[in-house]
Amino acid sequence: MLQTPTTVQAQPLALPPPSGDPAPDLELVELELSLDGVAADEDGFSDAVRRAAGALGGEFLFDLPASGLAADCRRIAALRIPEANGDGLKIVFALLDDGGTGIRVEDPSEETSDLKNFAHSFVGVLERMQRSLQ
C-alpha cells in the first residue's frame, strides 16, 4: 500500500522570554574566571584581586572589611577594570565570602552605592595627587 506524502510546515524556533536579569558584563566574567579557584584567605585576598585586576589592565583601589555592606561577605575590594566597549574604566567589587574560600565579582548595587561613590572620590584624590607630583 502506498502512503500519501504529507506536508509538514516548519514552525519558527521561539527563544525563551528574557529572564529579567541582565546578562553579565564580559569584563566581570573575565575577572571572575581569573579568580576562580584562587585559594584566598583573608590575608591573600588583596594580592589575589590585585593580580587579577592587573592582568585585565585594571587597577586595585582598596579593600576593607565588609561590615554588612553585602550578604555573605567578609571583605570587599574596589577595583577599576576596562569596560568591554573600551570606553574607560569602571568600578567593580570583588567580595571574599564569609567562609574565606571563594571570591565573587559584582557590579555596584543599591546596597553598595555609597561604597561606589567613595571609590570614585578615592580615584579623584589619587589623580589630583598624581598631577601635583608631575
Describe this structure in words.
- The chain is of the alpha+beta class and 134 residues long.
- Strands 1-2-3-4 form a four-stranded antiparallel beta sheet.
- Strand 3 and strand 4 form a beta hairpin.
- The longest helix is centred in the last third of the chain and has 21 residues.
- The termini are far apart.
- The relative contact order is 0.15.
How are the SSEs ordered, and which strands pair?
Layout: H1 26-35, H2 45-55, E1 59-65, E2 75-82, E3 89-96, E4 103-106, H3 113-133
Question: Short summary of the structure?
Answer:
This protein has 134 residues and is α+β, with helices and mostly antiparallel strands. The chain contains three helices and four strands; from the N terminus they run H-H-E-E-E-E-H.
**Portion in helices:** 25-40%
How would you classify the helix and strand content by structural class? alpha+beta
Q: Largest sheet, described in full? A: 4 strands, antiparallel
State the separation between the terminal residues, measured CA to CA.
93 Å
Beta content: 15-25%
**What is the general shape?**
globular
Give the low-confidence spans: 10-23
Number of helices: 3
Radius of gyration: 22 Å
Mean pLDDT: 79
Number of strands: 4
The SSE order reads HHEEEEH
Strand order in the largest sheet? 1-2-3-4
List keywords for this structure.
134 residues; alpha+beta; 3 helices; four-stranded antiparallel β-sheet
